[in-house]
Write a sequence for this structure.
C-alpha cells in the first residue's frame, strides 16, 4: 500500500465506485471491494492531510 | 631737464677752445674731464634702457642704452655704476632689491653724477633710482601684453581646456634647485591617500632673463609629447614682487597660453598675480597649493566613486528586496492554490466516502431482491406446490420415475400425493403372446 501513489489509489477507488454503480460487483466480492474502497479512501485522505501539514505549517507556528 | 643741460654746456665751452693746436691724449682727456666736471657739477636724472647689468662685490655695473625710434639701432649707450654703499642704502630705503629691478630690457630712471676719467672714459655714477618709473613702465608693458593676449583670444584659451578627472602624469617646469619644487614634490609624495603621481621634471630657469627662453623651450618639448602628460605645472618658490615680472613676459605668456595641455601655475606669490597666472588653466599661490590641487582633485574623484558605489549598492539591494517580495507573493499564491487543490481533492474523497456505503447498500438491496425473486420462483416450482395442484409423483427410493421403461424395472413404487405417500404394486409385464 505504501508504494501506491495517490493517483493510483484514487483511480482504483473510482473504478470500484463505478463498478458498484453499474452493479458489476459480485456479492462475494462486495465485502472485500468495500473494505478495499475504505482503505483507499483513508489512504488518500491521509496523503492529503500530510500534504496540508507540510505545505501550510508556517501559518500555525509563531513567526519569531 | 635736457634742454637746460644743453644751454649750460654752451655757456662754459668758450674759454677752452683754441683752434689749430695739437694735444697729447692725456691733455685732451684732462680737458674733457674738467669740461664735464664744470658743466655737469650736479647730478642729473636720465632715462634709459638697461642693456646689461652685472653685480660684483655689491657694486652694480650697468650698460645703459637708448634705441632709435624704430627700435632697430642703438642711438646712445653709456656705462653706469652703483657703488655698494649707495646700493645698500637705496635698497634699505626702498625695500626693493636692485638685482630684481635692474634686468636687461628694463626702462630705468636714474639720478647720475657724470664723471670722466682720463684712462677709463665716461662713467655715470648712480646716486638714486626712481623705482616707480620702472614699475610704471613695466605696468604699461604688462597691460599691453594682456591687451594683446585678449585680442588674440588667448586669455581664456587654456582655461577652456578640459583637465582630466584624475591628472597624475605631470610635466613639471621648474629649476631643480628651487625650494618650491622640493615643496611641490614632497607634498605630492606624502599625500595622505597614497595616490601615485608620475612627475617628469623639465628643468628651466624660473627667474631672470633666461626664464622666458628656457621655459618656452621646455613648453615646446612638452607640447611635442603632449600625449604622455595630463597637465603642465610651472613651479617656482616664493619670490619678491619684481621676480613676478618674469612671468609677465609677453612671449612666454603667449607660448603658455597656446599650450594644448592645461597649464597649472604655482609660481609662488600671495598678493600679486602674474599674466602667467591669468592665462593658466588654474593658478595656485604656492607650489604646495599646486600639489594640493592635484591631490584634492583625485580625492574628490575618489569620493565621487565611493558615492557611486554606495548608490549602486543601495539600488542593488532595493532590486533584491523587490524580487524577494515578489517571490514571497508568488509563494503565498502557490500556498493558496495548493490549499484550494487539496480542499477540492478532500471534498472529492468525502463524496466518495459518502457514496461508498450507499452504493454498497444499494448493491446489497439489489441482491436481496434477486434472492427474494429466486425464492418465489423456487416456491412456485417446488414439489409440494405441484402435488397441491393435483399432480402425483412416483419414486423408488430417491429415484424419481420419469418413464415407462423405468417403471418396468420395479415391482413396487412410491406414489406421492398432496396428503401423503402410498405404495403401489406394479403389474409385472406379461410375456409377449404370439
Amino acid at each position: 500500500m505504501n508504494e501506491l501513489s495517490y493517483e493510483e489509489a484514487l483511480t482504483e477507488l473510482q473504478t470500484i465506485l463505478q463498478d458498484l454503480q453499474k452493479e458489476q460487483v459480485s456479492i462475494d466480492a462486495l465485502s472485500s471491494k468495500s473494505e478495499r474502497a475504505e482503505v483507499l479512501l483513508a489512504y488518500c485522505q491521509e496523503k492529503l492531510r500530510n500534504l496540508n501539514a507540510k505545505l501550510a505549517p508556517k501559518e500555525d507556528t509563531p513567526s519569531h | 631737464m635736457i634742454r637746460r643741460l644743453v644751454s649750460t654746456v654752451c655757456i662754459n665751452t668758450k674759454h677752452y677752445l683754441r683752434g689749430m693746436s695739437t694735444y697729447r691724449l692725456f691733455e685732451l682727456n684732462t680737458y674733457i674731464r674738467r669740461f664735464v666736471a664744470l658743466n655737469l657739477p650736479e647730478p642729473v636724472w636720465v632715462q634709459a634702457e638697461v642693456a646689461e647689468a652685472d653685480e660684483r662685490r655689491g657694486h652694480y655695473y650697468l650698460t645703459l642704452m637708448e634705441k632709435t625710434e624704430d627700435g632697430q639701432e642703438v642711438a646712445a649707450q653709456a656705462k653706469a655704476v652703483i657703488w655698494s654703499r649707495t646700493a645698500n642704502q637705496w635698497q634699505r630705503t626702498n625695500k626693493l632689491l636692485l638685482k630684481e629691478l635692474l634686468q636687461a630690457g628694463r626702462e630705468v630712471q636714474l639720478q647720475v653724477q657724470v664723471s670722466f676719467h682720463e684712462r677709463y672714459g665716461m662713467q655715470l655714477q648712480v646716486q638714486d633710482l626712481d623705482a616707480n618709473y620702472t614699475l610704471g613702465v613695466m605696468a604699461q608693458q604688462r597691460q599691453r601684453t594682456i591687451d594683446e593676449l585678449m585680442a588674440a583670444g588667448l586669455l581664456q584659451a587654456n582655461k577652456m581646456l578640459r583637465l582630466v578627472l584624475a591628472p597624475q602624469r605631470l610635466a613639471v617646469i621648474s629649476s631643480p634647485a628651487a625650494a618650491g619644487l622640493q615643496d611641490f614634490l614632497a607634498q605630492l609624495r606624502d599625500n595622505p591617500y597614497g595616490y601615485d603621481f608620475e612627475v617628469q621634471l623639465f628643468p628651466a630657469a624660473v627667474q631672470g632673463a633666461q626664464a622666458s627662453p628656457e621655459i618656452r623651450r621646455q613648453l615646446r618639448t612638452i607640447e611635442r609629447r603632449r600625449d604622455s602628460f595630463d597637465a603642465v605645472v610651472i613651479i617656482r618658490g616664493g619670490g619678491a614682487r619684481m621676480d613676478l615680472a618674469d612671468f609677465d613676459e609677453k612671449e612666454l605668456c603667449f607660448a603658455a597660453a597656446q599650450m594644448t595641455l592645461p597649464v597649472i601655475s604655482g609660481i609662488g606669490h600671495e598678493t600679486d598675480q602674474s599674466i602667467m597666472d591669468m592665462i593658466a588653466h588654474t593658478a595656485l599661490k604656492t607650489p604646495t597649493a599646486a600639489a594640493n590641487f592635484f591631490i584634492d582633485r583625485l580625492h574628490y574623484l575618489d569620493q565621487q566613486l565611493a558615492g557611486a558605489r554606495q548608490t549602486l549598492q543601495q539600488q542593488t539591494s532595493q532590486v533584491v528586496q523587490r524580487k524577494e517580495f515578489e517571490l514571497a507573493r508568488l509563494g503565498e499564491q502557490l500556498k493558496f492554490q495548493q490549499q484550494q487543490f487539496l480542499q477540492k481533492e478532500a471534498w472529492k474523497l468525502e463524496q466518495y466516502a459518502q457514496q461508498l456505503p450507499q452504493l454498497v447498500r444499494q448493491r446489497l438491496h439489489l441482491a436481496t431482491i434477486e434472492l427474494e425473486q429466486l425464492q418465489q420462483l423456487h416456491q412456485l416450482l417446488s414439489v409440494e406446490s405441484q402435488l397441491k395442484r393435483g399432480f402425483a409423483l412416483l419414486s423408488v427410493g430417491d429415484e424419481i420415475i420419469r418413464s415407462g421403461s423405468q417403471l418396468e424395472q420395479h415391482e413396487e413404487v412410491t406414489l406421492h400425493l398432496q396428503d401423503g405417500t402410498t405404495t403401489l404394486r406394479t403389474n409385472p409385464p406379461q410375456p409377449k403372446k404370439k
